[in-house]
Amino acid sequence: MRFLFGKLDLRIVPIVIVLCAFTLTFAAPAPAADSDLTIPGMVGEVKGMLAAGKPRAEIAQWITARVDERLIALNLDTPDERQTLSASQYNRIKSVFDAWSDKGLTYQADEPYAAAHWVWENGFGHCQEHAHTVFHVLIMALEKGDDLGDYAWGDHAFVIWGQPDGFQGNPTLEVMKGWNNAFLIDPWLGECFPTNDAQFFKWYQERGGSAPILRVSAQPYKIYQRRYEMWLNNCPNLAGNYGAESEELVVTDVLGSSNITLGQTQKIKPAGDFKVTQNQCQVTVSFKAGVLTGRATGFVAGLTNVVSGALTKVSICAIKIGGQDKLLVRLVGKVPQTGATIVREGLLSKI
């Protein structure tokens, strides 16, 4: 089930490599905080807060803020949500997302764990992906799903945490108002509030109208965990040499003092200079003088273990365009002389 641009799409997503056609020059969002936080890291943080006896309200607010900071909300084309992106860059990342979600990407895009990892690495999604990320983090941290629900009201998606254990079916608004210490978590809007605080439901009533509130994701933790572990260990083959000489990487962000400017390009020379090797789910990338390693999750990998060079992170995502294997690439590196952080992005063909 997917919610895109106000449209509910009930199609089953086929497990095939995504087919898309678009040009790439876009900046993924630079999170305002916790830029190195991963999905497993989020789960660990929440487990720590639970062990420390933090109240549910505090944990729910923390998750809302982290996901809101990390992801661009594609349904909200506003300067606040677009952050530093221009309107044209924003439209390009929407096309990337649509290629993934509409045509189906490889690893069950409708599953909360798959959606969470993909959007966290790429930095953008609709309300459904925001909600899936929250649902995944919570069910893995809580190690139970009895009081957790991934819901939709009309064409909008959110998470409720704290519903009565074992609640079955779909709640009404009046039922939700009667739940004590339950919270509606909506990072797409950047909001988190108790379900018994009726004033906050006005926006949802206007958007959902008379549509029923539907539970989208509901499954026992042990089943969810088993499926997640199977997905994690079923890594595709990303290995190969990438980059034709005509292709280039574009500077999409500069943090600090540098003579490198936004929009500056870097040609791929020689062809195939961007190299990916792989041993099961362990991936190594070498490019110019930089070598990094890390673990693939589905068809994405965020590599942060630096072997050598000035690169500090490499993100890659496998796609197909016109039947040809390509990599969506994002490189983050430091300028040794000044310490400035430079982000380069591009779409590289497999050679």
Description:
- The structure is a single chain.
- With 351 residues, this protein is α+β, with helices and mostly antiparallel strands.
- The chain folds into two domains: 2-232, no CATH class; 240-349, Lipocalin (Beta Barrel), CATH 2.40.128.
- The chain is built from nine helices and 20 strands.
- It has helices at residues 39-51, 56-70, 79-82, 87-103, 112-122, 127-142, 173-177, 202-208, 221-232; strands spanning 2-4, 7-9, 72-73, 124-125, 148-153, 156-161, 183-186, 191-194, 213-217, 240-242, 248-255, 265-267, 274-279, 282-287, 290-297, 300-303, 305-308, 311-321, 324-334, 341-349.
- It is elongated and about 65 Å long.
* Major β-sheet profile: 11 strands, antiparallel
The coarse overall form would be elongated
- What's the count of strands? 20
Given as residue ranges, the uncertain stretches (5+ residues, pLDDT < 50) are: 1-34, 103-107
Could you report the average pLDDT, rounded to the nearest whole number? Answer: 80
Main structural class: alpha+beta
Q: What's the Cα radius of gyration?
A: 21 Å
Name the helicity range. 25-40%
Tell me the fraction of residues in β-strands, as a range: 25-35%
* Run of helices and strands: EEHHEHHHEHEEHEEHEHEEEEEEEEEEE
End-to-end Cα distance: 36 Å
Count of separate structural domains? 2
| Number of helical elements | 9
